[in-house]
Design a protein that fits this description.
This protein is an alpha+beta fold. It contains eight helices and twelve strands. The strands form three sheets. Strands 1-8-3-6 form a four-stranded antiparallel beta sheet. Helix 5 (148-162) packs across helix 8. It starts with a helix and ends with a helix. 23% of the residues are buried. Residues 12-132 form the Cyclic nucleotide-binding domain. Keywords: Activator, DNA-binding, Transcription, Transcription regulation. This is CRP/FNR family transcriptional regulator. Residues 146-220 form the HTH crp-type domain.
Length: 231
């Protein structure tokens, strides 16, 4: 599949004509990066807008003690980066591949000109900005409240919305590898306390766990998250 066809699969580009896709292709470069490769650190930031064509990337920050806190996980079709006219709030983040990725980078000047000439595409960009801001605000609010089990339930609910669920009887498997440390990074806790909290959720039969795998009881998870965040 050529790069124009890759671009046509991105959510933001579905409304573009073939002519627009050709123009977009001319200002795009695609790089394949292996797993656990930094796309960016706060010290190596450079202006640019990026699309995840294939794979998944993790966006995180470090606190004063050097502890990682995961802010977002982006999969195929998602966008990140910053330009003069557009900021997705990723300037001060670490952005790392969590599996092999194909990353598309837009030429800054040509892309800004493209936005001006394509108002419908710009409206899609505004929606992405709005959704990202809303999602980050909601995440920060919920992770500042509740006990650790509540935070884990909220994160699992968000992941179940974001990634494919595979049916396993009464449970659904989140199609994304999750170790206890990775969950700890998502909720800003230690691996040891997360392990204890997960054991409690298993006893309540809200989740089941396997090697880097979480199975959720959809009815119980939905009920618990509703009670926690909408009393």
């Amino acid at each position: 599949m050529n790069s124009i066809q890759y671009l046509s699969q991105f959510n933001l580009l579905h409304n573009l004509s073939l002519e627009d896709l050709v123009e977009m292709d001319q200002m795009t470069s695609i790089t394949t990066l292996p797993k656990n490769t930094f796309i960016q650190t706060p010290d190596t930031f450079s202006f640019g807008l990026y699309f995840v064509k294939k794979g998944k990337v993790r966006l995180y920050k470090l606190n004063a003690d050097g502890k990682q806190f995961t802010l977002d996980i982006l999969s195929e079709g998602n966008v990140f980066g910053e330009m003069d006219m557009i900021s997705l709030g990723t300037r001060d983040m670490y952005i790392e591949t969590i599996e092999e990725c194909d990353i598309c980078r837009m030429d800054k000047d040509r892309f800004e000109h493209f936005l001006i000439q394509h108002p419908r595409f710009m409206m899609n960009m505004i929606k992405v900005l709005s959704d990202r801001i809303s999602g980050m605000s909601s995440l920060a609010q919920h992770l500042a409240l509740g006990n650790l089990q509540d935070k884990i339930l909220y994160v699992l609910q968000k992941l179940s919305d974001q990634f494919t669920l595979q049916s396993h009887g009464e449970y659904y498997k989140i199609d994304f590898p999750l170790s206890h440390q990775e969950i700890a990074n998502l909720v800003g806790a230690t691996r040891e306390t997360v392990t204890t909290a997960l054991q409690g959720l298993v006893k309540e039969k809200i989740i089941k766990t396997g090697f880097k795998t979480i199975y959720i009881h959809q009815d119980k998870l939905s009920s618990n998250t509703k009670n926690v965040w909408n009393p």
